[in-house]
Every structure is written in C-alpha cells, then in structure tokens.
Amino acid sequence: MTWEDLAKAKREAVFNKIPKEWVIEVPPVEEAPNPRVLLDKLLPDEENAITDSTAMELLDKMKTGELKAIDVATAFCHRAALAHQVINCCSEIFFERAFARAKELDEYYEKTGELYGPLHGIPVSLKDQVNLEGIDSALGFLSRVNKPKTKDDESVIATILYNAGAVFYVKTTTPMAMMSGETYSNIYGQTYNGWNRRLSPGGSSGGESSLIASKGSLIGLSTDLGGSIRIPAAFNGLFALRASWGRLPYCKVDNTMAFQPVAPSVIGPSARDRNDLVHLVKTIIDTEPWFVDPKTPPIPWRPYSVPEKLVFGFYKTNKVTTPHPPVMRAMELIKEKLVAAGHEVIEWDPPVSHKFIKERLREIFVAENYNEITKECAITGEPKIPQLVEAWGLKGELTVSEHWEQARIQYETQQKYFKYWMDTAKSTSTGRPVDAWLTPVWETVSSIAGNPRYDKVSSYTYAVNYLNLCSVVTPITFVDKTVDVPVTDFQGYDESDDALQQTYDPELVDGMPVAVQVICQRYEEEKALEIAGVVYKATH
Amino acid sequence: MTWEDLAKAKREAVFNKIPKEWVIEVPPVEEAPNPRVLLDKLLPDEENAITDSTAMELLDKMKTGELKAIDVATAFCHRAALAHQVINCCSEIFFERAFARAKELDEYYEKTGELYGPLHGIPVSLKDQVNLEGIDSALGFLSRVNKPKTKDDESVIATILYNAGAVFYVKTTTPMAMMSGETYSNIYGQTYNGWNRRLSPGGSSGGESSLIASKGSLIGLSTDLGGSIRIPAAFNGLFALRASWGRLPYCKVDNTMAFQPVAPSVIGPSARDRNDLVHLVKTIIDTEPWFVDPKTPPIPWRPYSVPEKLVFGFYKTNKVTTPHPPVMRAMELIKEKLVAAGHEVIEWDPPVSHKFIKERLREIFVAENYNEITKECAITGEPKIPQLVEAWGLKGELTVSEHWEQARIQYETQQKYFKYWMDTAKSTSTGRPVDAWLTPVWETVSSIAGNPRYDKVSSYTYAVNYLNLCSVVTPITFVDKTVDVPVTDFQGYDESDDALQQTYDPELVDGMPVAVQVICQRYEEEKALEIAGVVYKATH
After folding, report:
1. Which chain regions cross the lipid bilayer (chains A, B) (predicted)?
2. Which range, of A24-28, A356-360, B301-305, B465-469, averages the lowest pLDDT?
C-alpha cells in the first residue's frame, strides 16, 4: 500500500466514525467562512445551549439533574462531528465510548445523587499525542497509523481525567512530529481555524484549538515544546496554560524526541473559559500526580490571592520582530486598562536577547538531526511535510558533550534572566519583583492556511520554553480592519521583520481574536491563571 | 613546572596557612591510629568542649552570650588544622577569614543582643567544589590549582549559608573529578578516615566526612552523583542527606560533566548530629532558593509528623552483592528494634534489578567518554588517578540519540519502581505505601586507604541516584570483631561477590561505625530526616 492509500484509508476510517445522520454537505468557504456561525446554524437549539455553556455551568446543571451527561456528550459529539467536516480537526473519533461513559455516569448519579467526580460528564478533547487504549497516536506519521495503543500505554493524565469523570470522544490533529507552527500532515492534510476557514489554526495543537474555538469542545489537552499550546490558542481566541516543566504529568503522552531532557515539552489545557481552565488544572494537581509521574514535582495547588496593586513587566516588541497592528493595539490596550485599574506597568528590558534564546532553543530541538523523523518517514515512504523542512536547519547530530554545552548555556541564561526579574523589585512601587510579564504570543493573529512559513522570524513564544516559565494565553480583543490598518513607512529591525510586516492583510484577518501572554515565574501556574483573569477583566 | 612540582607547591601553600603554633609532629599510625582520640589529646579542654558540642548547643550558648563566635571559630580552626596534619583532609585553609567573620558576628551580637541569623557563628566546612571568592576549586585537578574564583563565581548555597551567619574556614579534599569512591588526587594524595588512619574515608566527599568525624567540623556540604555524600558519611559514622535533584541549590557549585541533565549530582549536608542536619537543611530551604537557582523546585519546608506506626521496606542484600558481616548485623538490628518499637517491616523486592540500575547509571556517567577529564589532565600532564581509570569502562562518546535513549530507559525504570513502591499500600497494615525503605549504604564499612578498588561490584547507593529518591545515612552501630566474624562457607551471588566477601578483615575495621540508608520517595526530604531519627532512636 502506498502512503497515499494508507492516508486515504485512515481519513475515511475516521470519517466513517461519524453517525450518518450527522454527515453534512459542507458549503463552500465563500458562503460560510466562519465555522462557529455555520455550526450554530446546523446544530439544534438545545444542543447549541449546551455547547455555548462553560464546563462549570454544565457541572452545576448536571448536579441538580437539569442536564444528563448523555445530553452533554451528544451535543458535543454532534458539534465535533460537524466541526471535523468543516475544519478537519479530528485525528480520531470514538463517540460510542463517550456515550457509554456518559451513561455510566448518569447511572452513578441516579444511584447516588452525587456527581462521579469534579469533571463528571465533561467532554475533554485530546491532542493526538495523548494515549488511549485501542486508539492510534499517530503524531502525524503514517508509520504510526493503525497501531492502537494498549491499556498499559494509556497516558497518566488521561487516566486522571477519566477517573475525575471526564468523557473522551475525539483526539485532534497535529502536524508531523508536532514540529511546526502550522497543522498539516500527510495523513489528514490541512486543519483550519475555528473562526475562519481560510486561516491557519496555528500549530502544533491546531486541531485541538480550532475544535474548541468552533465549540466542538469546551476544553482539551495540548502540548508545547516551543509554542504549540500557545500559538493555536491565540489564533483561536482561547485561554490556555503553558505550565512549567512537569507541573502537569506528561507521563506516557507520546512524542517525538520524547526524552530530550534539556527543554522538554509540557502538556496543558486550552479552553474558552478561564474558570474551566483553572478547574481542570486544579483537578489534576489535587490528585497528587507526582506519585505516578516521576517527572512531576510535588507542588500542591497553592491558591493565589491577587493583591490590590499588581506590577506588570511590559513590552510591545521584543526587539527581534514587530507584531502586526492588531497585536500592537492589544498590547497598548492592556497597558492603558491596567494602569487605569490602578496597576503598575514597567518596561521589560531583559539582559538576554530573544533572538539568542530562539536560536539556542532551536539548536536543542534539532540536536539529534531529526533522525527519528527521518526514520518514521522512511517506514512508509511519506515525505517530510514542507512546514517541517522549511522551518529548521539541520546540521548533523550532536555529541553528548555538545548537548551538555547547550544545557550549560541555557542554565546560565536562566540565571541571568531570573536575576533580572528578581531585581525589578528595586524599581517597583510595591517592593515586589514584577508579578507578571506581558508579551504578545505571536507576531500575527493567523495567516492563510497552508501558507509558506514565516516563523523563521517569529520569536515570542520561545523564552517561556527555554527559561521554563509559565504562561497563560489570554484573549484581549478582535481585529478591526478599520482601526488595525497597516503601518505606513514601516521600519523593521531587519529585512525579515520588514517582510513579516508586509504579510499583514487586515481584510483577511478582520474579526479574528487577538491574545497576549501573561507570564509568571517557574511553577507559578496558580498566580499566572489568576492574573490572567485580572488582565481579561480589565480589557472586557 | 612539572605537575609534581605544582602539586608539591600547592600542598605546601595549604600547609603554610596553618598558624605555626598549631603545627604538630604527627605520631606514627601505630602509636595513634584513631584521629579522634589523638586530636582530643592535642586540643585544650575548653576547645574540646566546643568541638564536642552540636551546632544547636553552640547556638544556644552564643545566644545567651556564654560563648562568642570567635571562640567557636578558634576551636574548630585549631582542630581542623590538627586534623589536616593527621588525615590530610583539607584542600584549602583560610582561617583568617573565619576569624574576621566571627569578630563581625560578635560585634553584631554585642550591638543588637541578637544572633545574626540561624547559623550565627557556626563553622561550616565545604567540599572543594563549593566556590568562594579568592579561593581555588581544583576538584582534584592540577590544571585548576592557583585559579581563584571570583565574586561572581560564588556558589549560591555558600552565599545563603554565609548570609545565615555561617563561618567558612576550610574546603575539603576530593578525588580527581569526584569520580571515585576513594579520596585520592595527584594534588593532595590520600585522605584518611576520621576514625582510623589506616582506612579509607570513602569518596568522593572523603575530606568532608573525615574532617567532620574527627570533630574538625560540625557540619559541611558534600555532593552526590552516585554515592559521594553517602559512602564517606557511612565510613565516618555521620548523618547525611542525599536530597532529590535540585532540592538544595547546586547553582555555581563547580563540577565535572556539570550539565549532564539525566542523573545530575546533588549537594547536601553531612553532620555528626541529626538535629544539626535538619536545622541546616531547613535554613537553606526557608530562604526560597528557587528564586535564585533555576533548577531548584519551589518546594517549601514541609514539617512531617511521624505517625505511631511506620512501615519500612527492608532487605539485607540487594541480590547483587552481599554486605560484610557488620553491615548485615546492623540491618538485622534495625529490623528487630523497629519491630520491637511497634513498627512494621516488610520485604523489599523491587521489580528492577539493582545490577541493571547500576549499569545504566554508569553508562550515563561515561556518556561523554571522560573527555573533559582527559582534557584537564592534558593541561598539566598529570596522569588520571588509578581509582578513576580502574573503576569505569570507557567506550567512546555517545550521540545525542543514544543519550536520550538512556533517559528513556531511566524514566521507564522510575515508573516501574515507583509503581512498586505505591502498590505496597496493598500489603501494609496501615494502608499507606511503605514510608521508608531501609538498605545498606555500602557492602563494607571501609577498607585499607589507597587499596585497589573493589567498587566494580558495589551497588547499594546507585538506586537513589538513578531513580531520584532521597536518602538519609543513619549511623546504627560499630564493628565488634568478636561478634562480626567472617562468614564460614560463604556462597555469594557470583565470583565478584565471593571476592568482595573475602576482603572482610574484622581486625582491621574493629570499632568502625556502621550506617544504613533511610530512603523516602522523591522530594520527601523532611520525612526521610524525621524517620532517620526514629531509626536512630530505636537502635540507640
């Protein structure tokens, strides 16, 4: 079988998991560019009411018996089925399991009058990397298709969520090897944005974020090695947590280059509602996952009370590249609103160039020369996806000494950066170091889906990965083409920056969400989540 | 200058830091085999009273004004000077700083009536790796001699202790590169045991442990990559903490292969008194070192209350090698006493062979083929020490993929081992998993100093390093040659085990201390320290 045939068969197998009554004829993009609007029309009102709710609202209704888990599961399975047909976001569909699980939970509720757990009946979508028994984790490789995982392979975090009452129903698309800011693979082709069928969902968690944005999911798990939770969350207008290394258990979540120990990938949730996000994270941490995952530090959930006055570190650009006008406006807006709300905003001017950080991090990512990716591709003969090849320069596999030297440079950079952060206490009015650092997520708010990559020049996500900080993506506003006009006489930092700025097309991205990162120090997830709430409230 | 000349000059420079009035003629070993006894005779009574105290006792006396910091500093400098002449344990001597610091502290006390900090006036000895401004950190390499560290190089943990009022006065010997269970270098030659001048102090922190055992120090900092805190602590009858990775800040502590990220070295204290050990660890953690060291997880000090009934995992041998008779007796003694005290002791039978763990860990240690060590030696032409060369097989430098594969195997082994540990809850009477696991530290209680190495077959320390557990070395008893007789008709696990058993010489090690490890799970340092107290009390 050629890899093309294998891909076609897999796509069809996934499609065939959609009940016939939910199969639609998808209107052309021109007629229905916005998946959210299209799906709202296609879904029955009572199901729209469910998919428009937050998880907390659904939990309340299931607690009083007003809603059943099976109603919730049905609504989200139906909407996810529609979403998949429109934006191609699911790598696996297994609604029958969701219905069975929901019925079990309903029976439990009927018997006991209690919810089964803190996530009783809440549908949780999972990036393809999260292992479930009997289901593939292809990671965008044809070589891994039709190789279902065993019970023993099941991801620790999936077991935790399941035991808390979550309902699993879909896994979501990734680019090959998750090594791309776009979501394209030879298996599934292109995934589209949840707000605009012309646009990219970002990557690598593009399937996850676009599904949640299209309201085919409330909340789901993504991963982030260099920005893969945050880019798609921003492109799709979601809240998302990129936690510090190991804070949430990654144990038995599949990955490529999975055991790279210097700047590892992390797992974290994306959601439309911030309280839902907090609830999910707290639920996981409250199970004390450090007794199961040897890489999770034993840090319990520590409630954070927001002080009256916060101090924010702030810049509009990182002096490497210049964000597009709507992102610049969002940054201005935050600053203005936070100051108006009585907070302090000080200039963020770290002693390490973000270009340096980006280059060092990328060298870590390619330290084994993509040998694993090359091997996986060779199994079926599929080509590397262009997004992968174009984005990264390979220079041969490093030796152990060279790799340890990378670790040294990283550690020394962290020391320098953290010292800068702590020393800000000398110049804040509160006497505390900066509470959170505000920065764009990405230079753009999205781009044409499948577009040639421009992320050679992107640089806003990497510092969090390289330094091991925590970041909450926070939606701020929407593009308004009448306000967010191109800069005339733009003078960038260099030619790449000029070229990037020229890709801004207000007509194309009009109405798209714009988000920022609220970044706190290592393992300050509780704090970052609360401060994200302050930032959101100030701007809404 | 030849490396031999350089070594001689460095040794003389260190020796010349000893005030003339403290220089002694050292009696031959036959006349004064026990350094503790010899030093007790040489030191004035009022100084013996100080060096016989615990840190907590000295703090109490300095608080009431009964003692001054300068008295304490003088007593310990004097005794350390004598100890160095007898057992060759100091790599650096800088008493003048200690006196100046002590005077400062006394002035502070006179002015305020308060102690300067929780370690006011407490002399703390430091393994050579800990950086202080103006002093070498040679790590047993002649290439690093006469290259004093700068202010900016100073170890984070040294600054923390200094700011708490500690008094620094000596640094202590290590073998070349710290890669040995013996303490020998081309700079300083052989260091001897604090209890017996014929015997090895263990390694790599042999200088530190033998100085403390000889009462030339109360407490000090050592490091542990494969057993280097624990082996010398056991050989010298001390309490010692081998903490989990990063729990205590290693930032700017010098090392070879310092940025190896898979099974890193840790820093931790050794002391004669368990309460002193706890006080030091708590003092460090209470400063929130995670805001300074990017590798320290933000885990505050969490007091642990010992429940009425503890459950211990227990074995006398790990099925790889058989400890010598005194160690076996110590294990029997613990079991008997703990059961008599109402605790439960269950068989420890982990699903992973300790031979496997040892082999995998050693492969990680030599992943860069000792290239750094080879380079350091080449600078001055000094030869690798035999202990280093004999102990480890080099097979060439690994690639990054091979190194990541090591990380994969380790992580999967950890998962398996931790599952075993957690599952013991099913068979304990408390319903909790085993609270602590008791095991020998080492097969022997020491051996002839400079002896050809037998640690190819040793295997009791590695599991803690490979799995990232925490361990408290706890002194239990002393060798009694009339009781601890050689096993007749010994049948070992293999030929190496037979050969190891034959090295047991009750006459040689009579009177030497015997210790065990009290091991708890990752980052359970507070618990391990408390349970070590239970084990100590039960056997004393």
Report:
1. none
2. A356-360
Q: Residues 40-99, chain B: which have Cβ within 8 Å of A?
A: none
The backbone region for A165, taken as left when phi is positive above 0, alpha when psi lies in -120 to 50, beta otherwise, is left
Q: Indicate the CATH number of A311-539 among 2.60.40.1120, 3.40.710.10, 3.90.1300.10, 1.10.3370.10.
A: 3.90.1300.10
- Is the minimum CB–CB distance between B294 and chain A shorter than 8 Å? yes
Residue B392 is predicted with a pLDDT of: 59
CB contact under 8 A, B400 and A290: no
Lowest mean pLDDT among A121-135, A291-305, A437-451: A437-451
Residues of chain A with C-beta less than 8 angstroms from the C-beta of B466: none
- Span A259-276, mean pLDDT? 98
Portion 470-529 of A in contact with B at CB < 8 A: 521-524
Q: How far apart are CA A525 and CA A303, in angstroms?
A: 10
pTM of the predicted structure, to 2 decimals:
0.97
Structure tokens at A310: 């916060």
pLDDT-based confidence at residue B451 (cuts at 50, 70, 90): confident
Is the confidence at residue A456, as pLDDT, over 70? no
Task: Give the mean model confidence (pLDDT) for residues A426-439.
Answer: 97
**Residue A209 designated active-site:** no
Query: Which residue from A66, A85, A83, A75 is spatially nearest to A16, judged by alpha carbons?
Result: A85
CA proximity to A76, closest of A166, A180, A201: A166
CB contact under 8 A, A407 and B257: no
Note the pLDDT tens digit of each residue in B7-16: 999 999 999 9
- Contact between chains at A414 and B299 (C-beta distance less than 8 A): no
Range(s) within chain B of domains with CATH label 3.90.1300.10: 3-291, 311-539
Residue in chain A closest to B415 (alpha carbons) equals: A294
Q: Is B352 on the interface with A (CB under 8 A)?
A: no
For A90-133, the DSSP string reads EEEE-HHHHHHHHHHHHHHHHHHSS-SSTTTT-BEEEETTB--B
* Residue A299 touches partner B, C-beta closer than 8 Å: yes
CB count in 10 Å sphere of residue B54:
18
Would the CB atoms of B411 and A294 count as touching at under 8 Å?
yes
For residue B62, give the H/E element and its range.
helix B55-64
CA distance A252 to chain B (A): 9
Q: Which residue of B has its CA nearest to A370?
A: B401
Question: Do the Cβ atoms of A194 and A201 come closer than 8 Å?
Answer: yes
Q: Is A370 left (phi over 0), alpha (psi -120 to 50) or beta?
A: left
Q: What is the pLDDT of residue B390?
A: 55
Q: What are phi and psi of B417, to 5 degrees?
A: -70, -45
CATH architecture entry for B3-291: Alpha-Beta Complex (3.90)
Q: Considering chain A, what percentage of its residues have pLDDT values greater than 70?
A: 98
The interface predicted TM-score of the complex, written ipTM, equals 0.97
Residues pairing with B314 in the sheet: B347, B438
CB count within 10 Å of CB A289 equals 23
pLDDT digits (tens, 9 = 90+) for A293-331: 999 999 999 999 999 999 999 999 999 999 999 999 999
Query: A256: distance to nearest CA of chain B, Å?
Result: 11
C-alpha–C-alpha distance, residues B218 and B122, integer Å: 8
Contacts of A400 in chain B (CB under 8 A): 367-368, 397-400, 402-403
Is the distance from CB of A367 to CB of A403 less than 8 angstroms?
yes
What the block records as the tokens of B277 is: 């050990």
Mean pLDDT, chain B, rounded, equals 96
In this complex, do A294 and B467 lie within 8 Å of one another by their Cβ atoms?
yes
Q: Is A228 a catalytic residue?
A: yes
pLDDT 10s digits, A394-421 = 889 999 999 999 999 999 999 999 999 9
